[in-house]
Amino acid sequence: MKSNQTGFDNELYLKLQSENILKRIDTFNNKLYLEFGGKIFDDLHASRVLPGFDPNIKTKLLVKLKDKAEIIFCISANDIEKNRVRADLGLSYDDEVLRLVDNLRDLDLYVSSIVITLFKGQPSALKFARKLENRNERVYFHNYTKGYPNDVETIVSDEGYGANPYIETTRPLVIVTAPGPSSGKLATCLSQLYHEHKKGIKAGYAKFETFPVWNLPLKNPVNIAYEAATADLKDVNQIDPYHFNAYGELTVNYNRDIEVFPVLHNILKKITGGEPYKSPTDMGVNMVAKAITDENIVEEASKREIVRRYHRAQCDYKKGSGNFETVERLEYLMSELNLDPNYLEVTKVAKQTSKTSGYPCVALELHNGKVITGKTKKVISASGAVILNALRTLAGLGDDFDVITDSILMPIIELRTTYLNSKQSVLTLDDVLVALAISSSTNTKAQKIIKKLPELKGCEAHSTYMLPSAEELTLRKLGINITCEPQFINKHLFQN
Description:
The protein is an alpha/beta fold. It is 45% helix and 13% strand.
């Protein structure tokens, strides 16, 4: 599979998803609380497993519906306290909320408020709230719901959802979203439903879903890739028994939604006085399957993503930030599709090149299938070397090394080692890119290759050692799918 092939129709998806959301609003008398699962911006997982999927398609949908929609952000006080980080961007959840709010407002979308959920006096949550309130943002605190999950009478009462402050909303579509999972989106929606119905407003609830894809087979690689992405949460895809019992149709959902459905069904029934849904699948709005244009491309991309998740889990465990259960879970998921850790061609090339040369290596596969390598030697890191080599190849310069002169490289090394007291004498990827940018002002070859950077987006790369976090982040910013062997580059205890 070429890494720039597509298998997904964004325009069709946008049309079908928006139409179905509008239908759902009409179903609930023009007031719908829509829980947004997944990433509202930069849904990089979806773009990797559905080649062609626009990672910002959700915001384009919101722009299409912006006259009807407002947005509430939820963030768990526990996540603020633990400084939980969005791994693919390296941002803490509280900073991610600020980034998302800014980005949405830049698109002229209405973000009305921020809710700090699961609040029990956490100092860091109070500090975050003060920061927001000092910028004239509306902030609400929601506590743990008394009686949840079994005592429905208490949950649906002034002691339960009624104990949370009512969030003032003005538009028919209220998007409830968050920087990540387990942020209290569902509880916020249900709390709002309770208050709305007390006011005589017959509002409804639904979920904006992307994964798992309810009308793809249970063991389809797309759905297994979702399990891989949530392996640390122990999510498992299952056949929705409630949907099968109600309609005789096999559909896929994940264990947490299925497990909580009896409770959620009773809560919704108690709040609304009716039975809006017969199954967890009924609650979702998900038109992904109908927009897949090439199943083979999508399934191959999903297999690659599962292997990437395995490599990341191994590295997280090695660094002490992950657990071995996650690694074992991903090994099991790979075995279901007969995948192994060397499934990606770049993995094999990187390991063989490193073994032959004796140097740490990064290999990168271009969209035409050619694999480029870079090794860590005396001056440039393997990441910096492979990017330079790849850009030279794309620009047709081959092994022409007259791109960045020593007159630019050496002062950077001297600055670091002499004046900044750094023991690191090897230029990092960021150093190389800055040097390349400086060179491009006078060097026509540098000018030529720097324009090739966008062509690296979507390329696969593999490192024979765990990259410094700054280099890994830069590769991800370039759109490169980087994986690493769970090996430290040296014996130093301090790795950055």
